[in-house]
Write a structure and sequence with these properties.
Layout (H helix, E strand, L loop, with lengths): L2 E6 L15 H16 L4 H6 L3 E11 L8 E11 L3 E10 L2 E13 L18
Antiparallel strand pairs: 1-3, 2-5, 3-4, 4-5
Length: 128
Amino acid sequence: MAHRIKIKIYYEDTDAGGVVYYAKYLNYLERARTEFLSDHGINVAELHNLGYFFVVTHVDIHYRQPARLGDIIEVTTEINELRNASMTIKSHILRDNAVLAEADVTLACIDKNGKPTRFPEGFNTLKE
């Protein structure tokens, strides 16, 4: 079952026409990923302080319909693939169950020197 969060679209998210600026969708995906991890007991800030860093290595996003000023959107997040030091996350951005955008985001876990490192304990339960 996919993790879900709701996000309200504010003026700061939109262009002069009241349509969400395309790059803002990446912010929504990031927020949803962080909440997904938090709800699974993974504290990103704590791991950051321990020397684990999560970097986006690839994004594939398909925009289908625009979100607009005042909309309440829902972002779903689920693990598509989990490896030792990388994972691919499948997300959908919805409004009233209509798909506005869908994305696959690949993240890598790196250490303080920028080298790939295994995910810390707790990540093995994300795909369950």
